[in-house]
Structures are given as C-alpha cells and as structure tokens.
Amino acid sequence: MYKYFYNISGGSIRSLGPSTIAALLDGIAKIIPAALLVDIFNTIYRSFAEPEAGLNIGRLWTVCAVLLIWLVVEYAAYASLYDKTYKVAYSLAASGRLKLAEHIRHLSLGFFGKRDPGDITNLLLGDYGQVEHTISHNVPQLISGIMLPVLALFGLVFLDWRMALAMFIAIPFGVLLLWLTDSVQARLSESHVKAKNEAASRLQEYLAGIREIKAHNIGGKRFERLRLSFDQLKRASISLEGVMGPMIMGAMVLTRSGMTLMIFVGSYLLIGGTMSLPVFLLFLLVGTKVFEPLTVVLMNYGEMRYSAYSAQRIMDVRMEKPLPGTENVRAHAPIEFDRVSFGYDSDQPVLKDLSFHIEPNTITALVGPSGSGKSTVTRLLARFWDIDSGSIRIGGREIKEINPESLLGDISMVFQDVYLFQDTIGNNIRIGNRDATQAEIEEAAKRACCHEFISRLPQGYDTPVGEGGSTLSGGEKQRISIARALLKDASIVLLDEATASLDPENESAVQQAINELVANKTVILIAHRLKTIQHADKILVLDQGQLAEEGTHAELLEKQGLYANLWHLHQNTDGWRVK
Ligand code: ADP
C-alpha cells in the first residue's frame, strides 16, 4: 500500500497530505447530517413514547436550523476539498510530467532503443492521466467513504454491540475477496494498460506514416498491426470488465449482506425483548447511510487497482539511472578510443576492440562500407550510449567521468537528417546558443551561407518553420544546422556528410558553410564521397567495426588496401552518366 501511494504521488507522499486531510474532514462532515437525522428521529419517537410531554417543536426547529447552517459549512468543506485535491492532482501530474521529460533527456539513448517511441508519449499522457484521475477522484472518495462507516461502528458498538457486529461482520469477507483476487485484478489491469498503450503506439505509427501509406497506396493488410492492436484492446477490455466487474460486485454484495444480517438479528432481539424498538430503528437508519459510501469505496478500489500499473510504469522510468559523470570536458584536447567494444544489442558487437587517436584541431575522416560503424563512433563520442568495454578519453579523461551536459556543450553535431523545431528560423538557429543576440545569429547565418535566403523570406528570421523543417529544402535545412553549430562554437565537430546529392548551388554553399565551421576545430567527418576528404589530416578506414587502415589519403592509396579499393570504385561510379 505504501508503495502504491509512493508511486502514484511520484515519490512524494507528503504532497498527498493536504488532500488527505481535506478528504478526512469531508468524511467527518458527512456524519453530522446523519447524527442530526438520528436526533430528529429520537424527538419524534419520544413524542409517541411519552405522549404527555408532546412533540418538542423547538428542538425540531433547532435541528432544522443546524442542518441549514451545516449546508453552508459542508459547501465550504467541499470547496476546500475540491480545491486541494484537484490542485494537488493536476500540479503533481504537470510537474511530474515535466520532471519525467527532463529525466528522460539525461538517459542514454539505449533506453529509447528498448522502447516503442509511442510508449514514452503514452507514459507521459495516458499513464499520467490515469494517475491524475486516481489522485483527484479515487483517493479522496476512498478516504471520505471509509470515515462514516468507521465512526458509525464506534458509536453503534456502544449502543448495541450485537447489532453492530451483525452490521459490520460481512465487511472483512468482502475485503478478503478483493485481497484473494488481487493478483488476477493486477494481471488484468496490467494487460489492459499494455493493450491501450500498444493501440495508441500503433495509431501514432499509422498517422506518422500516413504519407508513405498514401504514396504507396498501401491498404488492407498493411493495417494489420493497427487492427490487431485494436482487437487486442477490445479483448483486454472485455476481460477486464467481465472478470473485475463480478469480483467488485461480489465484494459489494458480501459487504451489503451485513444490512440483511442486521435486520435478522434485530428482529430476533426485538422479539426476544433484549433490544428496544428505537435502537432497532436507529440501526436501520444509520445502516442505509453507512453502506452507500462503502459501495463507492469498493468501486474506487477497482479504479485504484487499475492505476497501480500506470504508476509502476512511471516509477520504473524515474528509477532509470541517468548517465553519471561530474567532471568538465577539456576543450581542444586530444580524443582517444582505446580498445572500444560496443553493441546496441549485447549479443551483436558493432565495434570490436577499436583504438585510434585524434589530435586536437585536426580533421579526421571516417570511411568504410555502410554498416561498418562510422555513425556509431560519433554517437559513442557524444555518449548517446555507453560503451561495453575499453575507454573513450578526451584530454586524457574518460568520458564516463564527464558530465554529459558539459560533454554535449563542447560537441557540435551536423547530421544528414536535420530536425528543425516548429518555431521561427531565428529561434531554430538560437538553439546553438540561447543567449545569442540577433546580431550574433545573423553573423552565424552569414558564415553558414543562409543569411541571403532567410532575408528573402517575407518575415525574414521570424519566418515560422513547419514541423521537422518541412517548409525548407534539404540544403537550406543543412545550412541552418551549420549556423546553429557555428553559434555554439564547440571545440569538437561531428559531421555527417550528406549522401543525397544537392543541386550545385546548394552544394557549394553547404561546402563553404562547412569550411567556416571546421576551422580551428577537432572535426570527425563521416565521409560518403571520398573526393571531399583527400585533404583530411587523417583517414580512419572501418570495416565491420574494426580499424582496417589508418593514414592520409596518399599513404592509404600507396597501401593498395581497402581504402584504395573504395577509392577506385568511387572514381568509376562517380563518372557515370545517363546516356
Ligand atoms: P555506418 O555509419 O558505418 O553505416 P552504423 O554505425 O550506422 O554504420 O551502424 C553499424 C551497425 O550498427 C549496423 O549493423 C547497424 O544496423 C547497427 N545499428 C545502427 N544503429 C542502431 C541502433 N540504433 N540499434 C541497433 N542497431 C543499430
């Protein structure tokens, strides 16, 4: 139970305090009208039992007045409960979501590799929504629903313990039924949440791929994954309702059977003359009041059980360890890979015992067949993943010891698939350095050869960019990403040369921008076209995750090895023409 509340409160049980107190007060508040009702009943009964005293009208009016005042007090209590619980629930969910999103940023990319991309969205929206509902509705209703029966039990025991026993004796059996079936409920809830998340992921996948689906006119069977996930959700929903419903109903019937038992016992005691009629009637009156909140409690229990798995999923992600490291990175320092081995999946090594040394402020080109591990080298240097064995050092310091923020602060990455945020062009460049002035942004844009085309746009730097940069051409996006990198001015530049051929104008602009970017930087360039790297200080030739050759262009050509082969192949293919 502690774990449950720990999980739903995102690890801060204290934050549930105000809403719990408010719910307790609300529970107590519900007792007052019941007590006043008992008093009205007593007053009327006495007028029959002692006709000479007559009906105490004054008392009835007083009770009515108290009831009226109580209405106002109850409204205030409700308002406070509403305010406390909903504020707590929504603030917990909002800050929890933000904290989780921030936490995820610090995790290794390996974490994302293990998950469906839609899964994280579902976690942040779906699972948090579920927990939000539990905190705002189920927990307060559970607490206030328990208060009345508990207090009634204390009062009624003193009035007639036999009747009180009959009334409450069935409740432990109802609770026992829930407890015994707990594992079934947990399993069903878990598979329903899983099915719901799976369906949401498949739907997201379907919508994300809608362009390809339309372009290739894919229909029918291609929807299979989506159809299957909805089918699974339907089955999980039916099982959940079909099995959990009767269980909760069973617990309700058992609990409510106390009322019947009490009437039996009451009739018996009344006939036996060991209990007076007013006490019996009083029990009947309170009984109807007590079982109503208990029914609500049981219904809420089912919903809370359901949200336990969502809370667990959230906690699991929160418990994922962020990449450790506290040291600051040394700028313009040598980079060293020392017997590095790594695989995305532990059983399939991608880099094997890879060692090389890179001097600061030099250009190193990574060359090799597709899949040889070139991109992996750059990703490991940026510590998107941690390596399996060996070490990567910058300035003699293991990157595992370096604070990931500091490390990324000194690395600029220019990839082929540039992602631009749905914001203005200016702000997309500003990502390189949030404190940059407009003049600095324009200066970077000029050096990256994009100032001219940006200035031609109707709103200039304030022109909004479509999501992912959909409103710009490939070359334009690439130059914007170079402007970002120029603004960042990190000492290490990881450059993935574009494979897609750009039109000549764009190509020379991109080349000029790259020349600006790499000056005085330690550059690691993934080269797809060998002619661009002839002047690199060093060329590392990778083959199946191992270093096959190393040297300058001239040295490697002389060796007549893999590089020379690739070079000759390249020379031949470069010259093809459509006849
Ligand atoms: P290159 O850049 O030389 O083409 P990569 O470094 O991208 O090669 O890939 C090396 C190997 O690692 C390939 O076999 C590729 O399939 C695999 N790989 C790349 N990225 C991932 C990933 N995120 N998860 C699993 N395997 C991957």
Brief overview, please?
This protein has about 575 residues and is α/β, with parallel strands linked by helices. The protein has 20 helices and 10 strands. About 65% of the residues lie in helices and about 10% in strands.
What layout of secondary structure does this protein have?
Blueprint: H1 2-8, H2 17-49, H3 57-105, H4 109-113, H5 117-159, H6 161-168, H7 171-180, H8 182-208, H9 210-215, H10 224-272, H11 277-319, E1 335-342, E2 351-358, E3 363-367, H12 374-381, E4 389-394, E5 397-398, H13 404-409, E6 411-414, H14 425-430, H15 438-447, H16 451-456, H17 474-488, E7 492-496, H18 504-518, E8 522-526, E9 538-543, E10 546-551, H19 553-559, H20 562-574
Parallel strand pairs: 3-8, 3-9, 6-7, 7-8
Antiparallel strand pairs: 1-2, 1-4, 4-5, 9-10
